[in-house]
C-alpha cells in the first residue's frame, strides 16, 4: 500500500540523520553508576523532539536510589497527539550505559562509524534502539500527519541498576497506566527479527555468616566466618546447583543455558576490608568474624518465589545441623517476578506482522534471561501489552567494542514505523484509499 511504501522511502532517506543521531547520543557519556550526564541527554532529546512537534516533560525521580544533587535521576517523556482520538503507542528506551571496562580498540564515547557499524558504549544497549525509534516516529509523522491517537517516546534513567529512578518511578506516577498508554515497545537489542515477550524472575539476597575474631596464629581461640561460608558454598555445590539444573522452562528463553534455573555468586568478602589502592602494607593477623556473599538467583515462570527462597533456607538449615556455632543472617536485596506477554497480544501481533513484511521472514519469539524495564510496566503500571523489540546483537551488550549496525537500525525503524501505521494510521490510510480498504503492505 502507498503509505507503507512512502514510509520505507522516508526512513531510507534519513540514513545519515539516523547515523548522526546515534553518534550524538553515544558522545554523551551517561555512565551508571554513578548516573552521569542524565540531564544533558534529556536536554538533547528535548531539542530534537520539540522540533518534531512533541510536547516534552522532564521529570526528576526525587528520592529514588542514587538520586542526589550531584547525580539527579532525570527522565524525559515526549508526547505527540494526533488529530483524533485513538490509542497511544509508547517507545521506551533507557539512557544509561554501564561501565566501559577494559579491552576497547575504539573510543567508547567516540561514535566511530566503521564498515556500517557505529561503535561506542551503549551503541546496541540501547542508544541505537532509541535513535531508531525516534527516526521511525518522525518518518511516520512526515508521511501520515493525520493520524489517530498518540505517540510517546521516553528516555529513562537507571535501567542498568534496576530502573527505580526511571520506569519504576514513572509507572508509579501513572505514566504507564492502561488508560494513558495502550502499547509499549522497548527497543532493547534482541536482534531485529526477534520479539522479546518478557524475562525470567530474579531474587537477590545477601548472606552473612558470623564468627569470632582472634589472633591468626591461634585460630582455635576464634571462629572463622569464612569457613562457615565455605560450608554453605559446598552444600550449594552438592545439592542446590544440581537441583537447579533439573528445572526447565517452557518459556522461549535465550540463550539455551538460561532455560534452566540458575544461581550466581555475585560477590563474596570475608575478614578485613581491603586497603586503599596506595596502601602497601600487610594485613593484620585476625580470624575473620564476618563473611558476606551476594547471590543472584534467576527463576522461571513455572517456579514460585516462596519456593526459591525456601531452597536457600534449606541449604542453611542443612549446614546449621552439621556445624557448631553456625550463625547467619539472610537479607533480601531485590525481587522481580517473571513476566511474559501473550503471543496474541495486540502489540505482539502488530510487530510480528511488521517484521514479516519488512524482512520477509517470520518473527522469532524469545524471553530474556535477565530482567529489563518491562517488569515495572507490568507490575506497577499494570500494563500487559508490552514487548522488547529493537536493533542490535544481544551478545554485544556490556562488551568492549560494542557496536550497532546501521542497516539493522534502519530495518528496525521500518518495523517500528509499520507498527505505527497498523495501530494509528487508519484514518490517514482511508483518506488515501477512497475504496475504504485497510490492508497494509
From TrEMBL:
It comes from the Bacteria. One of its GO terms (molecular function) is succinyl-diaminopimelate desuccinylase activity. Coiled coil: none annotated. InterPro entries: ArgE/DapE (IPR010182), Bact_exopeptidase_dim_dom (IPR036264), Peptidase_M20 (IPR002933), Peptidase_M20_dimer (IPR011650), Peptidase_M20A (IPR050072). Keywords: Cobalt, Hydrolase, Metal-binding, Zinc. Residues 198-320 form the Peptidase M20 dimerisation domain. Pfam families: M20_dimer (PF07687), Peptidase_M20 (PF01546). SUPFAM superfamilies: Bacterial exopeptidase dimerisation domain, Zn-dependent exopeptidases. Its EC number is 3.5.1.18. The keyword Kinase does not apply. Its cofactor is Co(2+); Zn(2+). Belongs to the peptidase M20A family. This is Succinyl-diaminopimelate desuccinylase. The lineage of its organism: Bacteria, Pseudomonadati, Pseudomonadota, Alphaproteobacteria, Hyphomicrobiales. The gene is dapE_3.
Amino acid at each position: 500500500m502507498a503509505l507503507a511504501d512512502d514510509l520505507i522511502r522516508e526512513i531510507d532517506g534519513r540514513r545519515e540523520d539516523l547515523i548522526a543521531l546515534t553518534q550524538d547520543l553515544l558522545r554523551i557519556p551517561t555512565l551508571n553508576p554513578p548516573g552521569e550526564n542524565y540531564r544533558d541527554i534529556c536536554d538533547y532529546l528535548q531539542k530534537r523532539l520539540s522540533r518534531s512537534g512533541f510536547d516534552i516533560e522532564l521529570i526528576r525521580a526525587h528520592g529514588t536510589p542514587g538520586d542526589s544533587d550531584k547525580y539527579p535521576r532525570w527522565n524525559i517523556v515526549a508526547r505527540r497527539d494526533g488529530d483524533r482520538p485513538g490509542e497511544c503507542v509508547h517507545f521506551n528506551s533507557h539512557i544509561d550505559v554501564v561501565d566501559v571496562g577494559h579491552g576497547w580498540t575504539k573510543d567508547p564515547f567516540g561514535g566511530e562509524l566503521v564498515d556500517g557499524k557505529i561503535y561506542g558504549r551503549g551503541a546496541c544497549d540501547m542508544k541505537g534502539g532509541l535513535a531508531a525509534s525516534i527516526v521511525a516516529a518522525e518518518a511516520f509523522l512526515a508521511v501520515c500527519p493525520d493520524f489517530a491517537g498518540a505517540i510517546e517516546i521516553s528516555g529513562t534513567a537507571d535501567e542498568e541498576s534496576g530502573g527505580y529512578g526511571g520506569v519504576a518511578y514513572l509507572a508509579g506516577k501513572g505514566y504507564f497506566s492502561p488508560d494513558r498508554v495502550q502499547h509499549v515497545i522497548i527497543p532493547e537489542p534482541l536482534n531485529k527479527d526477534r520479539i522479546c515477550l518478557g524475562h525470567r524472575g530474579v531474587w537477590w539476597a545477601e548472606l552473612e555468616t558470623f564468627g569470632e575474631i582472634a589472633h591468626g596464629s591461634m585460630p582455635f581461640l576464634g571462629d572463622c566466618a569464612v569457613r562457615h561460608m565455605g560450608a554453605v558454598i559446598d552444600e550449594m555445590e552438592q545439592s542446590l546447583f544440581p537441583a537447579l539444573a533439573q528445572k526447565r522452562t517452557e518459556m522461549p528463553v535465550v540463550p539455551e543455558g538460561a532455560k534452566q534455573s540458575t544461581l550466581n555468586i555475585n560477590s563474596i568478602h570475608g575478614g578485613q576490608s581491603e586497603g586503599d589502592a596506595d596502601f602497601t602494607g600487610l594485613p593484620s593477623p585476625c580470624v575473620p568474624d564476618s563473611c558476606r556473599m551476594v547471590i543472584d538467583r534467576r527463576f522461571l515462570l513455572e517456579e514460585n518465589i516462596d519456593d526459591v527462597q525456601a531452597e536457600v533456607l534449606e541449604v542453611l538449615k542443612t549446614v546449621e545441623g552439621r556445624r557448631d556455632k553456625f550463625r547467619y543472617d539472610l537479607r533480601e536485596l531485590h525481587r522481580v517476578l517473571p513476566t511474559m506477554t501473550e503471543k496474541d497480544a495486540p502489540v505482539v501481533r502488530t510487530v510480528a506482522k511488521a517484521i514479516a513484511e519488512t524482512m520477509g521472514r517470520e518473527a522469532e519469539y524469545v524471553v530474556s534471561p535477565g530482567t529489563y524495564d518491562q517488569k515495572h510496566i507490568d507490575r506497577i503500571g499494570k500494563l500487559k501489552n508490552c514487548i522488547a523489540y529493537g536493533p542490535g546483537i544481544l551478545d554485544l551488550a556490556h562488551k568492549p567494542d560494542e557496536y550497532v549496525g546501521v542497516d539493522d537500525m534502519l530495518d528496525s525503524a521500518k518495523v517500528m514505523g509499520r507498527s505505527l501505521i497498523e495501530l494509528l494510521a487508519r484514518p490517514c490510510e482511508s483518506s488515501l484509499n477512497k475504496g475504504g480498504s485497510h490492508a497494509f503492505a
